[in-house]
Structures are given as C-alpha cells and as structure tokens.
Amino acid sequence: MTNHILIENKINNFEKKIQVSSDKSISIRSVLLASQAIGTSKISNLLESEDVFNTLKTIKKLGINYTKKKNTYHIKGFGVNGFNIKKNTTINAGNSGTLARLILGLIVKSKYKIKLIGDKSLSKRDFSRVINPLRLFGSNIKSKNNLLPIEISGTKFLRPINYDEKIGSAQVKSCIILTALNTPGVTRIKAKISRNHTELMLKFLKYPIKVKRGEKFDIINIQGLKQFKSFNYNIPGDISSASFFIVLTLLSKKSKIIIENVNVNKSRTGIITILNKMGADIKLKNKRLYNGEEIANIHVKSKEKLNAVNCPAKLNSSAIDEFLIIFLVAAKANGISKFKDLGEMNKKESKRLDLAIKFLGLIGIKVKRFENNISIYGNPNLILSDNYEIKNFLKDHRIFFLSCITALTLGGNWKINDKDSINSSFPNFLKILKKIGAKIN
Ligand code: S3P
Fold it and tell me: Which of 75, 199, 311, 341 is most buried, judged by most C-beta within 10 A?
C-alpha cells in the first residue's frame, strides 16, 4: 500500500468552521487518572489516535477494563495503585513520550518486574530526565544509557522527594506528580513553567495538590497515598493540532477559519502570542472554563504582511510543539526572526530543530544557527515551484503536517512520505484539509 501523498496545488481561498481532533495531553492524562480512580469514569471525545490507543492498551495490560459506548469510554478503576499486574508484563508505549514517562510513576510499586519499550523514535529519546527523580524516590529502575527498554521492579520503600525540575518539561513534572500519588508524605516540586494539565485534573478531582504560581517556576506540593473518585470528562480540541490550520489560514489569501472548542490553557497558547506579535490577528472568542481548563473558539484571518519576531525564550515551553509551524511563518515574514534556547526541540519524536533547519534550507530560506538559537531570514515573496520530497523524518507527525501546510500555502510539487505518521496525534488531519478544499492525492 502506498504510504505517501502528493500535493501539486496551493489551496484556494476558504471560509470555514472546523473542529480539530481532541487534545492529546489531556486524553492521555484522563485515561491514566481514570485508571487510578475509584469507580467507573466516563470520558467522551477521547482522541482516537495511536498514542491514546497505546495508553488504553497499557491500562488494560495492567488489569483495568474499559468499554466504549457511543462516543464515551467507560474506564473502571480500583483506586491509586489499583493495577492488577501479571508476571512478565511488557508495556509498549509506541511513539508516545508522554505515555512512557507518565506510566512509570504509576507502576513504581508493581509486584512484578515490568518492561517498558517503544518504537524506533521513542527508543532514541532520553529517559534520564525521569529515571533520575524516580531513583531519588527509591524506585528500582534499570536501563542501558538511559534509553528504552527500561525495567522497573516495584518497591515498598518509596520516600517523598524535593525536586528542582529545570527543563520545563511537563512529562517530567507529571511523572513526579504521579509517583508522588504512590509515596507517603508530601512530595515537593519546584517546576519550571510547563503545561499544567496534570495539576488541573488532580485539582478537579479534589486530590490534595497545592500549586503556588511563580513567574518562572511553580511550587507544587502533593500529598501521597490519597484516593479520588471516578469522574466524567469531555476532552476539548488540541491547540497543537489547531496550529497547522491557524497557519494555513494565515498564509493563504482571503481566507478565514473558526476552530471551535479548543483548549486554550495559557501554558499552551504560546503560538497565538508569537503569531500576534508577528502581526497576525488571531482572536479567542467565547472563552469558558471547563473543569479548571480554559476553552475557546479560535478565529483566524489571512494576513498579507507579517513581520519578523524576536521570540522571548520564556514562551518556548508554551509553544514547544508548534515551533516547526511558527518557523514557516517566519520564513514568509518581513525581516529576520530570532528564536533562542530551543535545544528541547531536538528531544522530541525526531530531532526537530535539526530537521527544521534542513527543511527551511530545502525551501530556499537562509537560517543561521548558534548552538540552540536560530535566526530565520524571512522572504515575504517566497513562492515555490520545484519538486520536493520529504522522507526519513522518523515518522514525526508534526514534520508531516508542516510539509503539507508548506505545500498548500507556498506551492511546488510535493511528495510527502510516511502518511501513517498522522495517526500518532491527528488521524483526521487530511480529511479536514480536503473538506476545506485542499487537493491531495
Ligand atoms: C507533553 C509535553 C511536552 C510535549 C509533548 C506532550 C505532555 O513534552 O512536547 O508533545 O503531554 O506532557 P515535554 O514535557 O517533554 O516538553
């Protein structure tokens, strides 16, 4: 079966209202926390993508049953540490860094040894960031070179820790929070600001977690060994998926889009702040609160003139998965855009900073790099007419999405390989593009 697409035409102007797929971070967290709640939780609009299916398969392997009725998953939990773990269990996190990092916190007391594996991309990613704090808790964890496979054997002797999380990684912070649920006493984290869905969900569940918001850091205190009840949750849209449609609209001519019901938690909306600094006019309308999370409709119009940006590094974490598509806007903007301290991009599903620079080179954009800082020399007249082939990107879904949006806004004849990468976060991406009018073969 072919696993590539061809794009040979830019998209015509459009005015549409769409919904993108559900939030991946919140979907994974809702399944994991439902597996630790007492009773049956009901989760509707769960993202049905590979990363979330692997999360569902994981809890099932650990003894938690679920069923799907209409649009709702019913997950029956037995409380914190309520897994029923069998001998010789292997968990396959597939492509999902979030699942692999978070699940470790929930199996630290396992009666039997558990092996954690992942796909080719995940097997290249660093796990020292979670192995180090887990060892401080007293967990028995083995891995060669801090890579997968990891073996974890449960312990009864966990102790609370006081941890300084300096990366600004929500996966690390969440792994520590989930480990703290299994640990007696109060665990304290000083965490560089990152997405806070785990904290908000635990607060919504009335779990004893306290968060003191600082400018750059949060101080989080988690009381261990408490229980929480099952819950209902309706997952909102994912701003990381929406970002590709935001930029598609911005860079197309005479177009408008409304993206309904998207999670616009401030720890996720860096892309909107950055694009508005560049001259875009993106508005959040009908803002409302849902279980501690902020939801809104995103209104975007095309914009002929965009300016370069000097992007403050403090926005990095709130746009960490969106820089690829932000760089495309910088490529079309007037002037030299500057981005700093983006080393974390190289720790994702692929080495995204390296690949982004290659990609920009391929479409004729000058980029200067110094360590993890880059300057992008924008060209407002950029039009593509050559043949382009995108391959060997470790099936990174976001590189695939970036390539499609580039082809549809700048032109050229594109062959984009590894179409199935979209299943990791946004399986209906191509369907929505076609609905808006994109011609894709
Ligand atoms: C995620 C956190 C981010 C992000 C990833 C999802 C999460 O990773 O890149 O796609 O759901 O916690 P880091 O926390 O490692 O930055």
Answer: 75
